[in-house]
Amino acid sequence: MWQVNETIAFDGKPYRVLFTENSYFYWIVLDENKGLPERIYFDECNVWIDEGRVEKIPDPYAYLQAESWELGSSNYLESQKHYALIKPIIDGEGAFNKSTRAKRISHAIAVSDKSKSTIYRLVRRYWQRGQIKNALLPDYKNSGAAGKRRNFTNTKAGRPRIYGIGKGEAVNENIRKQFRIICDKYLMNDKGYSIRYAYIKFGKAYKLKYPDVAEHEMPTLRQFQYFYKTEYTKSTQIIKQTPKGEYNKDIRPLHGTATEQALGPGSRYEIDATIADIYLVDDNDPNKVIGRPTIYMVIDVFSRIVAGFYIGFDNASFPVAMKALISSFSSKVDICKKYGIDISDEQWPCIGIPDVLLADRGELMSHQASYLVNGIKVRLESAPPRRGDAKGIVERSFGSFQAKFKPYMPGVVSGNKVKKHGEKDYRVEAAVAKSDFFEIILYSILAHNLNKPMEKYDRAPDMPESIPSIPIELWRWGLQHRTGSLRTVDTDIAKILLLPREKVTVSELGVKLWGVVYTAKEVIQAGWMHRSTEVTRPKNLYAAYDLGSVNHIYLFPETGKNTFWVCDISTRSREFRDMTWYQVWERQAVQKQVSAEAKYQYSAVERDFDDLLEKKIKKAKNNRKASTLSNAQKIKDIKGNKQQIREQERKELAIKPNRPKQEKPAQIVQLKGIEENYELPNFIPELFDDEDDN
Length: 694
Description:
Layout: E1 7-10, E2 13-20, E3 24-29, E4 38-41, H1 42-50, E5 54-56, H2 74-90, H3 98-111, H4 116-128, H5 173-186, H6 195-209, H7 221-231, H8 234-241, H9 244-251, E6 268-275, E7 280-281, E8 289-291, E9 294-300, E10 306-312, H10 318-329, H11 333-338, E11 356-360, H12 368-375, E12 379-383, H13 392-402, E13 432-433, H14 434-450, H15 471-481, H16 491-497, E14 501-507, E15 510-513, E16 516-519, H17 521-525, E17 541-546, E18 549-556, E19 565-569, H18 581-626, H19 631-636, H20 638-653, H21 684-687
Parallel strand pairs: 6-11, 7-13, 11-12
Antiparallel strand pairs: 1-2, 1-5, 2-3, 3-4, 6-9, 7-8, 9-10, 14-15, 14-17, 15-16, 16-19, 17-18, 18-19
Helix pairs in contact: 2-3, 5-6, 5-7
């Protein structure tokens, strides 16, 4: 009925479910300093539910799932110490029995220096805050300046020198920068350089930069060694300084075996991917072949029930594997409804996180894997390379699911792509639409979970004969009779923290990821966008992003912590709004190509302009040499010359009416065939004739 770690309210009072059995469960009050677990029977709780006295509430300590710490920090060491102290007390159902718990606490007092009240406080905090290691983190995590490096500007840290001369040089940020450059160049590789050799190289670089510094005022070898040991963890040193082949063979950590027996439902999940043996077509255009889809399956080892899945066209990778894993954390009702299938959570009850997850190495080698381990307490196991049999259960499931459609559907992969004469290419025979294939796989999963009897299922001796070997029946029986059970998780936080991350830059425009600018109210409130040279903006920040949407990213403002700010795309990058990241990258590639071609065209224009400029400069120099006026006369004539040019310019630019031109006279047509002259008489000769001639 209730899941472990679920938070509920009874008469307005918050409780957490700690342990469930067939007919009862234990819970504890969340907000009491002296509360202890109480046993509640399901029959009694059902009456309270009918009376409306019990309701689900959000987990007030869900944020602890996202907390992280640095190895070696005081918080980490203290929480590990406290967990080791109370672990014998909280194991098993005996922790909830008063007399058994009292004996365990007495033993813990005897073997430690802690008082009875302190141990009770730690046990109560562990129960109230979600039964994870992060529950034991102290509440004063934000006090002081934990983790911040101290800068000594004038005085060198440590005790004064007894021998030698001088006081030494304090290590500031500039010196640390030089230390880091030398360490990265000479020590973070597999060439075998010693720390002494690297320090000699540092000394040469330091003297080159500060030639007048005295030898006794230079940073010492001990300071260099201290920086190296504190800045680079031992694990990092081993990874960087060991040849890759030798590291993979002899040095790398060994993971737990994948053949460990599952204790019950949710105890152990396997996840793997395959490319379906069929070519699909687009839903809207059957002539458009879109290729083969990728299928991820998450299967519970105990019951063989499919707990989560992914069907799509992304390549198999960690981000895609996390989509399948998140589907196993949450309800599948909405996914089924999308394809017209109505189910309830009871029909697909796999909601929560497992104890162990087995996957390929490539799907676990990421920063998100640390969240699974530390944030929500999932133990990760990786299969050896090229060892598909390590995940035999999920591997076999791919074959059984595909066997249902391969003999009948067109476009199924068969044989080689290169066909003999007269044979057809299976790719051109593709005809199954994408949505139809997704629906087929979903129906196959439901049929497997709810109805398929497994003839070769390895039944445990304590399983009754009346229980059929059907995944859903095995799941329900296991929840009642085995210790394995799922634990709840805040899926909203998990979805963000399991996304891939990338380094971002912060400027006065906002947060930039791959050329796309984002803003958030927290970024503005932090003052990072103020246009001032006095503003100090953080560096080396990372943001999580979803490949399916460029509209939002999730910025992690503190290095090493999983708290995040939601950033929205800025209007400066509005051209990319509502795109996927693949579309953004394609658009940016086209823009870069166009820009490169435009630069080629501009180069020729630039050269022509330069030629013109040189000619004009040469002409100006010749004009200067041909001048006969004195400098004083030139200056004196400037005002008059300018006025003369101004008047000339005004006349040239004056608006003149644009009248139509006069039309030519019409042609005269003779009516009677006699040529007549209708022109005006010309009296000019008569005016100049002499009178004597008349």
